[in-house]
Amino acid sequence: MAVLNTGTIKATFTFDEATARRLNEASIRLARPKSEIVREAIHEYYSRLDRLTDKERDSMLRAFDKLAPAIPARTREDIDRELREIRRSRKAAGLRGGSRS
After folding, report:
1. pLDDT score at 90
2. Residues of the domain holding 11
3. Do 59 and 43 share a structural domain?
4. So what's the pLDDT on residue 20?
5. Shared-domain flag, residues 19 and 42
6. Nearest-CA neighbor of 14 among 38, 46, 50, 49?
7. What are the 10-residue block averages of pLDDT along the chain, 101 residues in total?
8. How far is residue 41's CA from residue 68's CA, in Å, rounded to a whole number?
9. Do 59 and 69 meet the contact criterion of CB atoms below 8 Å apart?
10. Could you tell me the sign of the dihedral formed by the alpha carbons of 80, 81, 82, 88, in that order?
11. Widest CA span in the chain
12. What DSSP letter does each residue of the chain carry, written as one string?
C-alpha cells in the first residue's frame, strides 16, 4: 500500500467477477468513482460490526424460546417472600451484604 499526500492510502484488491461487475455497475449507475463506493461500503459494514447477525439473533431467540417456558410463573408476593427468606437466612449466617473474605 502506498500512502499518498492527500491522507489516503492506495491499495490493490482482488474481486471475484460478480463483485467486480456489481462494483462497476454501481459506479456507472451512481456516477461515482469505484473507490468512493468501496469506501462507503466499508464504512457501512464497519458500522454494523457491533450488531448481531441474523444467524446470531435467530440462535439467541431459539434459546430464549426454549428456556422461557421453564421460568416459573410466580406472583410478586411469592417473589418478595422468597427474597425476605433469603435475606433473613443470610443475616442469620453473618453474610449480610458486606465484602466477603
Report:
1. 92
2. 2-47
3. no
4. 97
5. yes
6. 38
7. 72 95 97 96 92 93 93 90 94 68 50
8. 38
9. no
10. positive
11. 77
12. -EE-TTS-EE------HHHHHHHHHHHHHHT--HHHHHHHHHHHHHHTTTSPPHHHHHHHHHHHHHHGGGS----HHHHHHHHHHHHHHHHHHT--SS---
Same domain flag for 38 and 66: no
Look at residue 48 in the predicted model and tell me its pLDDT: 87
| Residue 28 counted as domain residue | yes
Question: Residues in the chain, how many?
Answer: 101
Give the pTM.
0.51
> Given the C-alpha cell 422461557, which residue does it identify?
68
Whether residue 98 is contained in a domain is answered as: no
- Amino acid 95 reads L
Q: What's the pLDDT at 99?
A: 55
pLDDT, tens digit (0-9, with 9 covering 90-100), for 79-100: 999 999 999 999 988 865 555 5
Q: Which cell numbers hold the place of 27?
A: 459506479
What's the number of domains the chain is made of?
2
